[in-house]
Design a protein that fits this description.
This protein is mostly helical. The longest helix is centred in the middle third of the chain and has 34 residues. The protein starts with 9 loop residues before the first helix and ends with a helix.
């Protein structure tokens, strides 16, 4: 049986989309921080 978004409760779908947006934002910040740290190391 194929699950569609319509069969999921709207709250669960909304919560999942919110959490995935938050995760990507956190990972983006972490990636930027690691990148800038690398550049500082390379500049020395």
């Amino acid at each position: 049986q194929h699950l569609s978004w319509e069969s999921c409760p709207k709250e669960i779908f909304y919560g999942l989309s919110l959490s995935s947006q938050w995760d990507s934002r956190v990972y983006g910040f972490r990636f930027m921080a690691v990148n800038s740290a690398f550049k500082k190391q390379n500049d020395k």
